[in-house]
Amino acid sequence: MNSAKKTFVVDDDPFWTAMLTQILNDLGFTNITTFSSGAECFQNLHLNPELIFLDYQMEGMDGLTVLQKIKAYNSKISVVFCTAHEDLGVAIDALQYGSLDYLLKGNANRQEVASIISA
Predict the structure, then answer these.
(1) CA separation for the pair 40, 88 (Å, rounded)
(2) Among 56, 69, 88, 110, which residue is least crowded by beta carbons within 10 Å?
């Protein structure tokens, strides 16, 4: 059951954040918290999210740095790395650092997000 799953959406783009939040709501997620920076996310890991959708390009700390900090804090948190730019090197790094999957924002739709979550 997705509704009880504590989920974070971490992105500095309000449009993307709203769109992804709506997709997650459509999939039954109701316990969603959004953050506009990696630092905010990291400061709130004590809330024990099970799933984090994490942007790559953010001011301050980039997504790869935040991903490493999340995994050092709790390796069991599932992180889906999100970016608008296709970059094989970043995708490989994200997966090596423990990301569950890599979501291209241009491909994001309900079916794609559901597929990633169910994997």
Answers:
(1) 27
(2) 88
Task: Tell me the C-alpha distance between 114 and 54, whole Å.
Answer: 16
* 59-73 pLDDT, tens digit each: 888 899 999 999 999
The tokens for 20 are 């992804």
User: Which positions ≥6 away from 51 have C-beta within 8 Å?
Assistant: 5, 6, 7, 8, 77, 78, 79, 80, 117
Count CA within 13 A, CB hemisphere, residue 33: 19
Range from 20-24, 36-40, 48-52, 103-107 carrying the lowest mean pLDDT: 103-107
Virtual torsion, Cα 39, 78, 23, 102, nearest 10 deg: 90
The answer to whether 76 and 56 are in contact (CB under 8 A) is no
Contacts of 69 (CB under 8 A, 6+ apart): 38, 42, 61
Query: For residues 31 and 3, is the Cβ–Cβ distance under 8 A?
Result: yes
Rg (CA), the chain: 13
